[in-house]
């Protein structure tokens, strides 16, 4: 457990290097809840991108976690991370292998989560869990490939990553053909094995098809409400959010600036507006966190890494000068989130659900196959 030194006036300074104070209630809620961030990582996204751009390929390891970054992970308040990336084809095998190696390199600080029972191996501030996933499923060229990756540790797979693949359509495709016949077979195999179906980057029809085809809850690990995001293609319309909830699924809210609001300023209050919107639309039991950022966010990256990100996506992503959400762009952002939820008069039960209980519940249902 993390010790928190008390200052005065009912507020507490959680971290010595910061003057930010949090209420005792906020500290207790984070300390006593297994917090899930359903799209985040212990490694640096900037380092990962820079390594991929390195001309001397293979000389640098973008997935390494240096001691200072590991300390940020352990003191973040988050207990479970889903460090998925948008790779394809042969890269998928290499990524899963690297994540397994990462856990082996840090056996005291990291644990691979294969099932709900593995969550008992975690300790707040000492050991966090990694749920292995990939933000694409084009490495599933047949249903049998699902078995291969399941036995390598993959427990979540996003059907498409923005663009069309053999399984379905992506959020930035001009035409959305929905889930293909192969996609339907893959979903059936995923359901049978207990691998979660994720539709975060899928086109709207593909999302609806997946929810209709899946016999188990469907996840939106990291997205937003389109109604609040100026119609952004990567956010979800109400009909898709309702379909996801109809399966028993949970939606993690992303903290990418243009997904949160089309206007400035874009702050943590606007981020929490998405949580409140989904809670009102389908119930608070169907919403959680999927920040879609590493411990330090995108704006802390080098200019080279930022340029690579911006050039790698469709113009419909509508990048602005900043990518992170103000007030939700640092390693201890979960404490600020809880403080804002308290300000919104959310109950302890609601806050625990948003922090992690909702995703813990639904993953237990999916993984029980």
Distance from N terminus to C terminus (CA atoms, Å) equals 33 Å
**Assigned CATH class:** Alpha Beta
SSE string, helix = H, strand = E? EEEHEHHEHEEEHEHEHEHEHHEHHH
| Class per helix and strand makeup | alpha/beta
Largest sheet, order of strands side by side? Answer: 8-9-10-11-12-13
Largest beta-sheet details: 6 strands, parallel
CATH superfamily, by name, is Metal-dependent hydrolases
Which residue ranges are poorly predicted, with pLDDT under 50 across at least 5 consecutive positions?
A: 1-10
The CATH topology label is TIM Barrel
Architecture overview:
- The protein has 369 residues and is of the alpha/beta class.
- The protein has a single domain (35-41, 75-366), classed as Metal-dependent hydrolases (TIM Barrel), CATH 3.20.20.
- Helices cover 38% and strands 11% of the residues.
- It has a six-stranded parallel β-sheet with strand order 8-9-10-11-12-13, with helices on both faces. The chain has a four-stranded parallel β-sheet with strand order 4-5-7-6.
- α1 packs across α12 (333-343) and α7 (204-213) packs parallel to α8 (238-246).
- The longest helix is centred in the C-terminal third of the chain and has 19 residues, at 348-366.
- It is globular and about 55 Å long.
- It starts with 5 loop residues before the first strand and ends with a helix.
């Amino acid at each position: 457990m993390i010790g928190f030194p008390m200052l005065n006036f009912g507020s507490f300074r959680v971290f010595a290097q910061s003057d930010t104070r949090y209420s005792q209630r906020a500290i207790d809620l984070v300390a006593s809840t297994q917090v899930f961030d359903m799209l985040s990582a212990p490694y640096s996204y900037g380092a990962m991108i820079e390594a991929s751009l390195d001309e001397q390929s293979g000389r640098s390891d973008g997935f390494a976690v240096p001691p200072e970054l590991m300390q940020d992970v352990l003191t973040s308040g988050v207990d479970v991370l889903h460090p998925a990336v948008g790779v394809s084809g042969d890269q998928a095998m290499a990524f899963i292998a690297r994540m397994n190696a990462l856990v082996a390199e840090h056996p005291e600080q990291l644990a691979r989560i294969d099932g709900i029972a593995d969550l008992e191996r975690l300790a707040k501030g000492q050991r966090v869990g990694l749920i292995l996933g990939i933000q694409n499923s084009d490495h599933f060229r047949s249903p049998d490939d699902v078995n291969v990756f399941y036995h390598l540790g993959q427990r979540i797979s996003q059907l498409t990553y923005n663009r069309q693949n053999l399984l379905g359509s992506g959020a930035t495709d001009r035409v959305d053909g929905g889930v293909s016949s192969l996609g339907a077979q893959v979903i059936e195999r995923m359901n049978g094995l207990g691998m979660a179906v994720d539709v975060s980057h899928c086109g709207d029809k593909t999302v609806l098809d997946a929810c209709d085809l899946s016999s188990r809850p469907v996840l939106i690990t990291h997205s937003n409400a389109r109604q609040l995001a100026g119609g952004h293609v990567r956010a979800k319309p109400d009909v898709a959010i309702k379909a996801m909830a109809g399966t028993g699924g949970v939606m993690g809210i992303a903290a990418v600036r243009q997904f949160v609001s089309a206007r400035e300023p874009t702050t943590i209050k606007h981020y929490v507006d998405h949580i409140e919107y989904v809670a009102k639309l389908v119930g608070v039991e169907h919403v959680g966190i999927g920040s879609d950022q590493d411990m330090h966010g995108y704006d802390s990256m080098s200019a080279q890494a930022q340029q690579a990100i911006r050039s790698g996506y469709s113009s419909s992503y509508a990048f602005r000068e900043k990518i992170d959400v103000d007030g939700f762009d640092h390693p201890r952002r979960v404490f600020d989130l809880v403080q804002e939820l308290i300000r919104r008069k959310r109950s302890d039960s609601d806050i625990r659900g948003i922090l992690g209980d909702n995703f813990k519940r639904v993953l237990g249902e999916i993984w029980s196959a």
